[in-house]
Design brief:
By secondary structure, this protein is α/β, with parallel strands linked by helices. The protein folds into 2 domains: 19-113, Up-down Bundle (Four Helix Bundle (Hemerythrin (Met), subunit A)), CATH 1.20.120.420; 115-261 and 296-316, 3-Layer(aba) Sandwich (Rossmann fold). The protein is 38% helix and 15% strand. The protein has 10 helices and 12 strands. It has helices at 19-27, 34-50, 57-69, 76-91, 93-118, 147-154, 171-183, 195-200, 226-235, 267-270; strands at 127-130, 160-164, 187-190, 206-209, 213-214, 220-223, 240-243, 271-275, 281-285, 298-301, 308-311, 314-316. It has a 7-stranded mixed sheet with strand order 3-2-1-4-7-11-12. A hairpin with a 5-residue loop joins strand 5 and strand 6. The longest helix has 26 residues, at 93-118. The model has no long low-confidence stretch (mean pLDDT 97). It binds 5-S-methyl-1-O-phosphono-5-thio-D-ribulose (MRU).
Length: 319
């Protein structure tokens, strides 16, 4: 997998030789984004199955399933593919691998189709705001929130993307900006607190973000900071869309309050990593020493603030 912790400063491929390593890669966000960690969780489960089918096979599968399930709590795709591959592994290791591969392909195809449905929302000259990274790095390919932008751009439409920097891990400033650069799409990285002002100035005509889990009533968990963008968008009457494959919808989760929200280490708030003048990656403290920090990784946007959901099956205005 691509090591997303080093992008955009270095492009490294990480090999995960067993399910422990793949699980660690999910925890440490070497791979991240709901679709990508869903696929990785499926492959981790398949790795556990492929490790050998001796007599305690089923016991080992359960241990592996519990370990992988504990990697990160919020993204529904992780649990959906984990369970599907676990069920296949009960039949055979080969069936587990086949399932993991099929789910990864399905995720990439869902991203492609989200792009085709969502591209009609993008108008020539428009300003589009996105939060975090829901591009081809966050899924197996194509992306969710960014897929419509890529599809529209490939058809010749020209527009500007505003990428929230997305503190503390800066997925917007590092990953979305890097993807947009590769795709040749005009964009600005903006501070997390700038969007409402740009909306006020009329520079943003549309907001699209991805999702980590969508409850049965349409409430949507996504990267922390999404909620405040949705509130601002409603104030300025700007359409706010969620783009996500159907695998992100959780029918067993009645509403937003039932979605488990990951709390990550306060170190992520206190320290930032980037290249110095010689290009050597350095980690520096950026907060007042001695002060504690809170680091909720996701928030929940209530369905009332969401204009529509772009899935592989089309756009629905209510879930
Ligand atoms: O903590 P992350 O980087 O895994 O969070 C990712 C997001 O919040 C994305 O917007 C989401 O997973 C949707 S699309 C990949």
């Amino acid at each position: 997998m691509i090591d997303q912790t080093l992008l955009p400063f270095a492009f490294n491929i990480v090999r995960c030789e067993d399910h422990h390593a793949t699980c660690r890669a999910i925890q440490t966000m070497v791979t991240r984004g709901a679709g990508a960690i869903g696929a990785a969780a499926g492959f981790a489960m398949a790795q556990a199955a492929l490790a050998g089918k001796e007599e305690n096979y089923e016991e080992r599968l359960v241990q592996a399933r519990d370990l992988i399930a504990s990697a990160r709590p919020t993204a529904r795709d992780l649990f959906a593919s984990l369970e599907a591959v676990y069920q296949a592994a009960l039949l055979s290791p080969a069936a587990a691998l086949e399932k993991a591969l099929a789910l990864a392909d399905q995720n990439a195809e869902a991203g492609r189709r989200i792009g085709q449905h969502g591209k009609h929302l993008i108008r020539e000259g428009m300003g589009v705001l996105t939060h975090c990274n829901a591009g081809w790095l966050g899924l197996v390919d194509h992306g969710s929130a960014l897929a419509p932008l890529y599809a529209a751009h490939r058809e010749g439409r020209r527009f500007t993307v505003f990428a929230d920097e997305t503190r503390p891990r800066s997925q917007g400033a590092r990953l979305t900006a890097w993807e947009l650069e590769q795709e040749g799409i005009a964009h600005y990285i903006i501070p997390d607190n700038a969007a409402a002002w740009l909306m006020h100035q009329g520079r943003i005509g549309l907001v699209i973000t991805g999702a980590d889990r969508i409850a049965a009533n349409g409430d949507t968990a996504n990267k922390i900071g999404t909620l405040q963008k949705a509130i601002a968008a409603q104030h300025y009457h700007i359409p706010f869309y969620i783009a996500a494959p159907l695998s992100t919808f959780d029918p067993h989760c009645p509403g937003g309050d039932d979605i488990p929200i990951e709390a990550r280490s306060e170190e992520e708030v206190h320290y930032q990593t980037g290249p110095d003048e010689e290009g050597v990656l350095r980690t520096v403290r950026v907060t007042s020493p001695g002060s504690p920090a809170l680091n909720p990784a996701f928030d929940v946007t209530p369905h009332q603030l969401i204009t529509g959901y772009i899935t592989e099956e089309g756009i629905r205005t209510r879930w």
